[in-house]
Amino acid sequence: MTQSISETSPASRGDAFQETVATWLSRSVPDRAQNQCFDFPAILATDIGLQREENQDRVAALRLSAKQGSQPIIAVVVADGMGGMRDGGKCATLAISSFFYALVRHRHQGLEQRAAAAIAHANDAVYAFAGGRGGATLSALLFDAGASPVIINLGDSRIYACGKGVKVERLTVDDSLEEAVGGHGRELLQFVGMGAGMRPHIRSVPTGAMELALTTDGIHYIDADTLASVLFHAPEQKAASDRLSALARWCGGHDNASIALIDLQALSTQAARGQDGGIQIWDPFGTMAISWVCDVSETPRPQAVAAPEVAPIKADAEKQGAYRKGRKGARRPSKKTGQDPRPRKEDVQLEIQIEKSPDIKDGDDDSR
Questions:
Q1: Which residues of 4-39 are buried (b: 16+ CB within 10 A; e: fewer)?
Q2: What are the tens digits of pLDDT across the range 55-98?
Q3: pLDDT higher than 70, residue 358
Q4: Which of 26, 275, 311, 317 suits 173 as a labelling partner, its CA being 20 to 30 A distant?
Q5: Are 75 and 141 in contact (CB under 8 A)?
Q6: From CA 147, how far away is CA 64, in angstroms rounded?
Q7: Short-list 73, 60, 63, CA closest to 22
Q8: Which fold has domain 33-292?
Q9: CA–CA separation, 183 vs 179, rounded Å?
Q10: Where exactly are the structural domains of the chain?
C-alpha cells in the first residue's frame, strides 16, 4: 500500500524517511534468511539461532545515488540489540534507520565526517528512545568511489578482512572490559544509545583488502581459528555465509547469528559505472527501492512512502535495572550528552517501492 506524507515541515519529512526504513526493517520475517544481492556484491544473512525467542540482530545495506550518473555512496551495517536491556530489537532497528538517514543528510561531506555524523545521530536517536536503558552494537562499512573505504565499530560486533585463500585479519577491537582495558569479562563499555561519552572507532580499510565480513557475536563466538579457516577455504561468499551460519547452529546456536560479506573489488567496479539516481536498501529478506526526486534547488522532500503493515516503533516507559546483552552488560552513562549530535533535518522527496528479493531463502541446517 502507499501512504501519502502531507506534513510541510522539513523535520516531519526527515522523520518520515527514517520511520519508513525502521518500519520496513521491523516487518514480520522468517527466523532465517539469506539475500544474495545480485546487483550488489554482498551477501546478507541472519539466523535467530536455537535458544532465542526473538531475533534482535539487524543487517542492512544502502546504496545512494543523489542523481543519475553520480557515484553511489555505499553502506553495509550490522547491529545487535542488547537483549538484556530494553527493547534490543527496536534499538537495533533504530540504530540502522537513523544511521542511514544521517548518511543521506550528510551525503556531501567527506567519508569519515559522514561516518562520525551517522554514528552520532544513531547514538542520539537510540538514547532518545531508550534513555540509556537499551542499546545496540554497530559495525559498518562506508564506501565512496575515489576515497578509501571506511569502517565504523561500536560495541562487540566485528569486522574481518578476508577472502578465498587470504589470511583473515580482524580489523576491530571489542568495546568490552577484556579487550578495551585488559580486564576480565565481556561487559560492554560502549554501545549505540549510551548517550554522553561515546567514542566510535573509525578507520580506513587496509589497502589491498579483498573482502570484508561483518559479524554479530552469534557468528564469531565460535573458535577464532575455526572461523578464520572457514573464511579462508570457502570458494565464494555464499558458501562462507552458509557454512558459518550452519556452524553457529552446530555449536549450539546460543545467540542470533548474522553476517554481511562484501566483495570490495567488485564494489569498486560497480561504483565506477554509477547507478540511476535513487536509494536502494537491502536486508536478508528483501529490497526496498526509493526514487530520488529533487526540485530545481535540489532540496529533497518526502512525497510518498510504501509501508508494510507493521506496527511502528514506540517508546515504552518501563524501566529495567539490568543492562545485559546475553552474557554481556553495559554501563549506564551518568548524564545525557551536553551537545546535540542530531543533524539538521532536510527535506526529502521520496517514492518508495518494496519488493521481495527473488533469491530469498529461509535456510536449512545443512552446510554447503
A1: ebeeeebeebbbbbbbbbbbbbbeebeebbbbbbee
A2: 999 999 999 886 655 678 899 999 999 866 669 999 999 999 99
A3: no
A4: 26
A5: yes
A6: 16
A7: 60
A8: Phosphatase 2c; domain 1 (3.60.40)
A9: 7
A10: 33-292
